[in-house]
Amino acid sequence: MEFLSDYGLFLLKTITMVGALVIVLAVIASISMRNRHRTDGELVVKRLNDDIEDFKTTLEEALLDEHEYKQLQKKREKEEKEKAKADKKRTRDGLESSEVKKRVFVLDFNGDVKASEVDLLRHEITAVLTEADKDDEIVLRLESPGGMVHTYGLAASQLKRIRDKGIQLTICVDEVAASGGYMMACLGNKIVAAPFALIGSIGVLAQIPNFSRLLKKHDVDYELFTAGEYKRTVTMFGRNTAKAREKFQSDLEETHELFRQHVQKFRPRLDVNAVANGDVWYGQQALELRLIDEIGTSDDYIVNACAKADVYSIRYEYRKSLQEKLGVGVQAAIEKATTTILGRIQQQNISKS
């Protein structure tokens, strides 16, 4: 009994501590979100070729013996000197350097229901378009199951800015580009998807619970006042009429038709009537239906690009405010406390056995 009492007291203290930390974290996160629009950001640029070269060098150093590694280094240094000498001669002769390469700019978009990263995407695209030309390429690593029509419509419009500039846009999908995700993906001049990535869902969905019978059962009246026949059609708390349902369904059908037209415009070789039924397909099936153009992963595409182009990762990041920095600290403290709790419980179980 004494053990159970001590264990219960320990558990109660722990729950109280964790609960307090969660509340603090929630308050900090709330303040941070309210202040987000005033937080400055910065563009982070990273040359991905360097990562590939570092991987290769690290493996060579580990796999080759000291003599072989030194010989390889000497060979490369000699090749670099010869190349620099040749470029210098070409410059003297008024010719372009042999080192002039195509540039590839890699962006990332991880979509949630609200397409929250559209604010980052618009900054990234604006930045890249100040430098990119028609000989360059922009690659978007896209992952999204879709969400709100207007926010994904805005995200798609950001990608159209690239198309309007005549710059090659390649969309890479490793896991999913469905619904609003595919609304964005179809803007690509080329869509590359992994074999088991989910593609499609060209449809529109709306789910609204209705509590009118529950309110009526408990004698609760719900009154809705509007000016304009269609200011509100179906509601969550009032009784929905047949006319309201018909108007709501009509709006969904209209949105679906706009979605169909959007896909058809940017994927003219696609039989939209065959795929605009809300269904999704795996990558290989999507290729056969012409929803995508190529099977492959974003990793392979970028590694191959590094072999013949200068590849840069472009990411716009908000500078963390004091509240956000504190939030990260609190989150780490919660994770540590949780780990400690699990460790002590495990120790108690061991001692009981």
Described by the principal axes of the CA atoms, the overall outline is extended
Strand and helix order: HEHHEHEHEEHEEHHHEHEHEH
- What structural class do the secondary elements suggest? alpha/beta
| Residues in β-strands, percent | 15-25%
Mean pLDDT: 83
- Note the quaternary state here: single chain
Helix fraction?
A: 40-55%
Q: Uncertain segments of ≥5 residues (pLDDT<50)?
A: 349-353
Number of strands: 10
Question: N- to C-terminal separation?
Answer: 16 Å
The major β-sheet equals: 7 strands, mixed
Fold and architecture overview:
By secondary structure, the chain is α/β, with parallel strands linked by helices. Among the domains are: 1-40 and 321-353; 202-270, no CATH class. Helices cover 54% and strands 15% of the residues. Strand 2 (102-110), helix 4 (118-129) and strand 3 form a beta-alpha-beta unit. Helix 1 (2-35) runs antiparallel to helix 12 (322-352). The longest helix is centred in the first third of the chain and has 34 residues, at 2-35. Residues 349-353 have low confidence and may be disordered.
